[in-house]
Amino acid sequence: MGEMLAGASIVLHFTTIFLITIGVGLGIIIGILPGLGATMGVALLLPFTLTLPKPDGILLLLGIYIGAIYGGSISAILLRIPGTGGAAATTLDGYPMAQKGEAGLAIGTATISSFIGGIISIVILITAAPQIANWALKFGPPEFFALAIFGLTIIGYISGKSILNGLTAGIIGMILATVGMDPVGSVQRYTFGFIELASGIDFVSLVIGLFGLSQVFANIEKIIINSSFKNKISSNISRLIPSWGDIKKILPIILKGSFIGTFIGALPGAGASIAVWISYNEAKRSSKEPDKFGTGIIEGVAAPESANNAVTGGALIPLLTLCIPGDAVTAVILGALLMHDITPGPLLFMKNFDIVTAVFFGMVIGNIVMLILGLSFAKIFAKIVNIPPKFFIPILVSLCIVGSFSIRNSFFDVILMIFFGIIGYIFEKVGIPIPPIILGFILGQLIEYNLRLSLLLSQGSFLIFFNRPITLILLLLTVCLLTFNYINHIRKKARDSKVNSL
Amino acid sequence: MKNIVDLFLLTFSSIYVFIAYRLPHGQTKYGAGFMPLTLGILLIILLLIKVIQRYFKLDFNNNQDISIDKLKLLVFFAILLAFYIITLKMVGFIIASIIYLIAAFLMFQVKGLIKILLISTITPLVIFYLFNSLLRVPLP
Q: In 3-state terms, chain B is what percent helix, strand and coil (to 5)?
């Protein structure tokens, strides 16, 4: 209880609340602007947070995460372009509502649903996380090795069209993680005489290059060919708050969506883009008038919106307790936590429970701020949708350069960032997905460290991974999930080629 | 495009494996070179599977190749980026950013000279103030 209060006292400071507010506000703007999204937002603003005190920097990033997931729904409602993958289902009813002149009501419903979804997921996070962390205290290097390998299975979900390309990307990420000092024997590897590489490839340069600059290049293409950004929409936002009758109608849907979002978010690899569809389908299935879904009803906005913000709390359960990121954004947040000298895992709950509770309270405040900002500034946010990319792209490039430079005041990191930006752009062009690279980079370090420690313990015998029940179960689960993913992909491909041939 | 990238990756992974062989392998065989060697070989296997798949036309991905128009703007932008970094070293963040932003806005055909000048001047000043004064991170 004392540690809970200590966590609360860290957060309940003017500066901290101010930083969370800035984070949520920036997150909403980033989420609204099509082509950016939560991962890029967190990556781009990560260097800004490194000089801030321990929990403040992380809370700012979590604010961006919460804000961006919510912000994605505003462009989904007004433009039919989901700002983030998690807002895709919102377009189905949100956009028709905007067409009927009910854009305000759609945004209001999205705001309230996101708020309730976010809060419920944090309550579940607060209840479940310490229990899981307690259980994970028994883990040694073999278990952490198996857990990190299990974490890699999410590559199957974030690979896009081809698992093979996803695996290639994951291995490339793990290869990048081998640059610098070897984690066990302190041998220099692949530094080629560059002192800057002695401590490894700078995570900020890597992440800003892959998620920031590569997206800038992709957006430059859109400037030439894409006309979707030219859609000037009238930001006529009238009534925001749903009536009491509407709230009574959507409350059960919101509650269901919140639980679905939290549960799906806690599963490695599932994430918001899956949760929203499950929640939407469930709301439609249990509705008395399923035919009305897709025509512009608030139930169709409440279901995905409660689920996508509930994912934020759910995704933090495996991240904070087991050090497993659920998707690309949480992989970047994991990197950020490590850079802030906070190592997630059961020991974090033992040694720094005040920081864990600060994260919990910070997320509650973040959701409250999101509700207030969402309802107060809906009209302004609606105007941001109209900003064409040619205005913000040059500024983003400037931020990418400043961000990568600021970590070590080194132009080497800027060059590295540009190199990864070009690589990321080319990889996306040839169908090699970017998120598995980041996942491989982060988990690669954990895998090598724990694998080699385990082998030192067992004097070189791999049997150590099969003698321990938790390790064995996790490795078997990994094989099952990979096989399941592969079969699913083969089926999907066969289905797609059938459709194409018709 | 895909073939070039695969060829590049195959060359890269071969050099990576070659260096991994020369790293110390430690008393338990699982030293500093163990992980790079495993990963390098895995990458080569994956790339070979990809090449074989493409040879037998099992690759269903149809990714867009870069058109000349897009390439032109991207190359111009890359040159501008290089120019930005060089000037950043020479004249510092504020002046370099102002020049770069004006050039970038003109390249993207943003209309309104006063608007361009205002955004190009205010943005670097705000970023500089934010980093130097609030976050205490020195910029060039």
A: 75, 0, 25
The helix/strand/coil state of A180 is strand
Q: Determine the angle formed by the axes of helices B34-55 and A163-177, rounding to 10 degrees.
A: 150
- CA–CA gap between residue A303 and residue A260 (Å, rounded): 10
Q: Residue A55 and residue A424: Cα distance in Å, rounded?
A: 31
Locate A72 and state its tokens: 């994605």
Bridge partners (DSSP) of residue A189 are: A180
Interface of B with A in 51-110 (CB under 8 A): 53, 59-61, 63-66, 69-70, 73-74, 77-78, 81, 84-85, 88-89, 93, 97, 100-101, 104-105, 108-110
Tell me, what's the ipTM? Answer: 0.88
Question: pLDDT for A194-246, tens place per residue?
Answer: 888 988 898 888 988 988 888 888 878 776 655 444 455 555 667 778 888 88
**Is residue A413 within 8 Å of residue A213, measured between CB atoms?**
no
Compute φ and ψ for A466, nearest 5 degrees.
-110, -10
What's the count of helices (H) and strands (E) in chain B, helices before strands?
Answer: 5, 0
Query: How big is the CA angle at B32 (ends B28 and B34), to the nearest 5 degrees?
Result: 70
Cβ-in-10-Å burial (0-12, 13-18, 19+) of B40 comes to buried
B31 contacts A187? CB cut-off 8 A: yes
Summarised one tens digit per residue, pLDDT across range A37-65 is 788 888 888 888 888 887 888 999 999 98
Contact A394 B101 (CB under 8 A): yes
**Can you tell me the distance from the alpha carbon of A181 to that of B80, in angstroms, rounded to the nearest whole number?**
35
Q: What SS3 class is residue B81?
A: helix
| Closest residue in chain A to residue B100, using alpha carbons only | A394
For A353, the 3-state DSSP assignment is helix
- Give the torsion sign (CA, A372, A377, A381, A384): negative
What is the tens place of the pLDDT at every residue in B11-41? 999 999 999 888 876 555 778 888 999 999 9
